[in-house]
Structure prediction request, 450 residues.
Amino acid sequence: MTDFDYDFFVIGGGSGGVRASRIAAGLGARVGLAEERYLGGTCVNVGCVPKKLFSYASQYGQDFEDARGYGWEFHQAPTFNWATLRENKDREISRLNGIYLSMLQKAGVDVFQERATLLDRHTIALGDRRFTAKEILIATGGWPFVPDFPGNQHVISSNEVFSLEKLPTSIVIVGGGYIAVEFAGIFAGLGVKTTLVSRGDRVLRGFDRELTDAFTVELQKYAALHLNTSVEKIERRGPDELLVHFNNETTIQTEAVMFATGRKANTHDLGLKECDVALSESGAVIVNNHFTSSITNIHAVGDVIDRVPLTPVALAEGQILAQRLFGTSHKAMHYENIPTAVFSHPNLASVGLDEKGARRKFSNIAVFRSRFTPLRHTLSGNDEKYFLKLLVDKDSDKVVGAHMLGADAGEIIQGLAVAMIAGATKADFDATIGIHPTVAEEFVTMRTAS
Prediction:
């Protein structure tokens, strides 16, 4: 590999690219990494981290109200300052960017904070400079997609939402996925009149239907929901006034419109087509089970391959690839039982199969459910309901799906994911002593199946 400037060159400094770079460098490879925007990728800069910080911020308003039932009195209503949240978030993201740069440099990775493109299967261009590499990794992630329609220049995406100069008084959010419902909760919690519009007949398609039905009941307590609806055009009527026209001939006047209608692989103008790297119709890099593209020394991981768009998945993919290329590991990536959470209001989280998938895979399924008011809300007066669900293959007694709607659902489901990976049975759940009084104990006390 001494005929090349680098053994491994990574284009993209997000989760997958950074992890692959550090692992490869630790295994003795000469590694270069180029990132044109911000180290840490979508998750750190315009995704998971700032989104959850905003989610925390939006929950305090309801917490203040809930506190009254516990004897807390307020002589004046608390107020919210958008600029303070935005600036504090920016400071934290800047700190994380610095940590990523430091980690890479300490690992011995050469970091180039500029755009990189491919000239051929071994040559990378950075401005006027040229570098060669034996192995190349594409880890450029995804980018928000806004469809083409009259007035689409007036909308924002999940990229711009974190840096708005001021908090709008009203917003229409278009989409039915996790980004859309998370921001519906965020804006509503911050006092914004919120409308969620989805062209589908339900939100959060892909999650267990019963779980999303329970969530939809809670969603409509704080946001207007319009299903089977799509945007036809948007008109600017004033500095803070947009008129949104829908396919059903209705309109909504609002201050802001946010589109959360999906993301596409960020492969435009990287030189991939010129290098004969096969791409899907959506632009994603097509890879085999070893994350190698149609060109044997060009690889890809993370959102750019459009498999499971989750940060921990990209991390795992990057690590597996680097260990295979520069170590002795031949570990394969398994996509079963990947836990995931939606930081909506309330949170929901899942691991394993939904009920439809479980019944398709197994012939004898037992379903355990629990729907209740949590202890916290017995005094708060809040009418929020929690929902928990376990799916069990009766023939093996193994738990094959766990689903939860309620505060900190992700924290609880993470523990259940460990149990399911270890092959836990319903008998194991039943033999586990619950921690009382907690929400989590419901998972080990459900006894009646349907």
The chain has a mean pLDDT of 97. The chain has eleven helices and 21 strands. The first helix runs from residue 15 to 26. The domain at 6-144+264-326 is CATH 3.50.50.60 (FAD/NAD(P)-binding domain).
